[in-house]
Amino acid sequence: MSTSTPEARARQHIDELLAAAGWAIQHRGEMNLGASRGVAVREFPLKTGFADYLLFVNRKALGAVEAKPEGTPLSGVEVQTEKYGAGLPDLPPAWRKPLPFLYESTGVETFFTDGRDPLPRSRRTWACPDLVDT
Prior knowledge:
The protein has a single domain (6-131), classed as tt1808, chain A, CATH 3.90.1570. A seven-stranded mixed sheet has the order 1-2-3-4-5-6-7, sandwiched between helices. By secondary structure, the chain is an alpha/beta fold. The protein has two helices and seven strands; from the N terminus they run H-E-E-E-E-H-E-E-E. It is 18% helix and 32% strand. The longest helix has 15 residues, at 6-20. A hairpin with a 2-residue loop joins strand 3 (49-57) and strand 4. The protein is globular, with a radius of gyration of 14 Å.
């Protein structure tokens, strides 16, 4: 992946974080949901746009990740991610609709919304940089 733009650099770092957490990362044209228990598919088409990453567990959609360039304020981006959670087409199957687990990330900073929460809201989360070779 070329890292010539700020968003490409963010996606590279997000790829590293997802891989360190055990996700298999795939391009949508090479999608194989049986490759791993957790699969993150890049640029997945939805009814409401393209999710930067659509997350699958045991072959069913579970969440989405919106990538933004480093330095982008993530507060407010959850509105975009929320549209992705609600925009899943009829196929592939999902654990729940709308998708419950939504992330916004710059690769340095990550926010998370759990749609199962009675009052869902985007909250800052973290990743351990020691797990990722840089």
